[in-house]
């Protein structure tokens, strides 16, 4: 990966709202070069999506998130890809990752209640062919996500001085 491309990607990963003009100034190139590079990276799917990081705990949203460990039997000639595809096509599923260790896939699911997520796991996910077992873990609180501390305590408190 060329150096300029890597630098632009790092800047956008930190803040995807950074303007091409600002990136150009930071890197000592023209804004047009940055725009062309970003367009090329979007076209070849290196940049897949731009998104905001939302702290849903600060909203009135009824959102439940669960990480589900899934053990599967891989298919001959396709490995884990076919079953992973069947899983990621469900609208409830936000992310699917192939893992090493004690289970095969991690599935991130969103729902409006624990009951809704549990129903999805019981009726759709665990009944798929090749799924051997599932273990559901509900997220109770997020402290840090994507490198961002979500609830930063005031770090500039003065120390108590006692006589």
Report on the architecture of this protein.
The mean pLDDT is 91. The protein is built from five helices and six strands, in the order αααβαββαβββ. A hairpin with a 2-residue loop joins strand 5 and strand 6 (148-149). The chain has a four-stranded antiparallel beta sheet. A two-stranded antiparallel sheet has the order 5-6. With 163 residues, the protein is α+β, with helices and mostly antiparallel strands.
Strand-pairing-aware structural class: alpha+beta
Order of helices and strands: HHHEHEEHEEE
> For the largest beta sheet, what order do the strands appear in spatially?
2-3-1-4
End-to-end distance = 60 Å
Profile the largest sheet: 4 strands, antiparallel
Amount of beta strand: 15-25%
Report Rg.
21 Å
Portion in helices: 25-40%
Tell me, rounded to a whole number, the average pLDDT: 91
């Amino acid at each position: 990966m060329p150096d300029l491309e890597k630098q632009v990607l790092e800047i956008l990963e930190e803040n995807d709202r950074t303007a091409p003009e600002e990136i150009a100034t930071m890197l000592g190139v023209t804004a047009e070069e940055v725009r062309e590079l970003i367009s090329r990276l979007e076209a070849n799917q290196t940049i897949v999506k731009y998104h905001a990081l939302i702290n849903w705990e600060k909203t009135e949203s009824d959102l439940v998130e669960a990480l589900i460990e899934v053990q599967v039997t891989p298919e001959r000639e396709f490995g884990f890809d076919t079953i992973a595809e069947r899983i990621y096509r469900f609208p409830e599923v936000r992310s699917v990752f192939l893992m090493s260790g004690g289970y095969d896939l991690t599935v991130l699911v969103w729902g409006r209640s624990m009951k809704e997520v549990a129903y999805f796991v019981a009726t759709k996910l665990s009944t798929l062919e090749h799924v051997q077992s599932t273990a559901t873990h509900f997220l109770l609180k997020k402290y840090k996500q994507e490198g961002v501390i979500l609830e930063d305590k005031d770090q500039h408190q003065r120390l108590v001085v006692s006589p």
